[in-house]
Specification:
398 residues, mainly alpha, MetI-like fold, 2 domains, 73% helix, 0% strand, globular
């Protein structure tokens, strides 16, 4: 053999990806005999559970209960002749999402844009969705793409997109109710997942400024304001949400003037908003306490008064710190909206329980609960993804 010839090792070299994978498996799953046995047993258990679950899902489950009641699960008993109104609201929402993403090209808006379009596009392949609904879904996707293209072409439309977001909610409520201008659809006909989203989104948005005021009031030097805020926060946080909902639905009407009625959905939203605002206030107060004293001293050195110091120096940093806890609280309050079915408000879970009571769908509890859980998981997981992106952009960990 020629001494100048070096043996080739190309045939025995492993790709870097395989080396990294083998090292990870050895360090995390097979580091010693106990972990190796535990890993093997866990794999066997997972295979056993998945085999039984997938067999039931694809061969034994009666998914007709979902397909035949899909409209009820999403929008409740909203009249079929007026379904164009929530569909139009969805089209406006998708246009604003596309426009906002186009003018800013923000990574967070990119995630929202992609998620909403994929979520709607998947529904186009559901055979039980009517062709008229599929036409609205396709239109919403097209409008979102159009909004993105318009935003990229005309970036100066950013201020108009902000105005659009401010006006979206009152326009949505007007379209859903009608208020006599359009045929009135009372809130007792609203239901399903849409009702959960309405309650949660309204409470989350409305409780944010209330929570800021409560957090600042709790740190106020004025005894009356500080005592009021402390009493409110500690009282609300010491009472379960279901008790506040009971007060709003059963006791609050007793204190109203004779002949004056407040819609049950409004009472529910007020109760959930007050409940969430107390927790938001504590999250923000924790963020305020985490701000170092040097920030206050730097603001004072610049000659800023208390209002400017709080608005431009302290509060932005406190809100940046509290992003994880705020999103966690938002996810929690969205899941807690299922409590409203206890008071004859037919949300997604309430619709599911009503369908279970239908003699034609007896024995379909597993399918219904799995569908309801999947809907909540999709939305909550989406919120957590957006939260991680916000944390990354704001560099919360630094």
């Amino acid at each position: 053999m020629d001494s100048n010839t070096e043996p080739s090792t190309n045939s025995v070299e492993m790709p870097k990806e395989q080396i990294k994978a083998s090292v990870w498996l050895k360090e995390n799953l097979f580091s010693n005999w106990f972990n190796s046995v535990l890993t093997v047993l866990s794999v066997i258990l997972v295979i056993f559970v998945l085999n039984g679950t997938l067999t039931w899902v694809f061969t034994e489950a009666n998914w007709s209960v979902i397909s035949e009641n899909f409209k009820l699960f999403i929008i409740g008993q909203y009249p079929l002749a007026q379904l164009w109104r929530p569909w139009l609201s969805l089209v406006l929402l998708m246009f604003l999402i596309g426009l906002s993403f186009g003018v800013s090209r923000n990574n967070i808006l990119k995630i929202i844009f992609i998620f909403m379009n994929v979520y709607l596009a998947v529904q186009l392949f559901f055979p039980f969705i009517a062709w008229s609904s599929k036409a609205w879904i396709a239109s919403a996707i097209a409008i979102a793409i159009l909004g993105m293209l318009v935003g990229r072409k005309f970036p100066k439309l950013k201020k108009y997109s902000i105005v659009g977001w401010i006006l979206l909610y009152p326009i949505f409520i007007f379209l859903m109710n009608g208020f006599g201008i359009l045929p009135t659809v009372r809130t007792n006909a609203w239901g399903g997942l849409t009702l959960n989203i309405i309650i949660a989104s309204t409470a989350i948005v409305a409780s944010f400024p209330i929570g800021i005021l409560l957090a600042l009031g709790r740190r106020s030097k004025l005894p009356i304001i500080r005592l009021f805020c402390i009493t409110f926060i500690e009282t609300i946080r010491g009472v379960p949400l279901v008790a506040l909902l009971a007060v709003a639905m059963l006791m609050f009407p007793l204190f109203l003037p004779s002949g004056f009625q407040l819609d049950s959905l409004i009472r529910i939203i007020i109760a959930v908003t007050l409940f969430n605002s107390a927790y938001v206030a504590e999250n923000i107060r924790g963020g305020l306490q985490a701000i170092p004293r040097s920030q206050y001293e730097a603001a004072d050195a610049l000659g800023l008064n208390a209002w400017k110091r709080t608005t431009f120096i302290i509060m932005p940093q406190a809100l940046r710190i509290t992003v994880p806890s705020m999103v966690g609280q938002s996810i929690s309050i969205f899941k807690d909206t299922t409590l409203v079915f206890l008071f004859s408000i037919v949300d997604l879970l309430g619709i599911g329980r009503a369908v279970m009571a239908n003699p034609a769908f007896l024995g379909t509890q597993k399918e219904i609960y799995l569908f309801v859980g999947l809907m909540f998981w999709i939305i909550c997981y989406f919120m957590s993804i957006v939260s991680k992106r916000i944390e990354r952009n704001l560099k919360v960990s630094h």
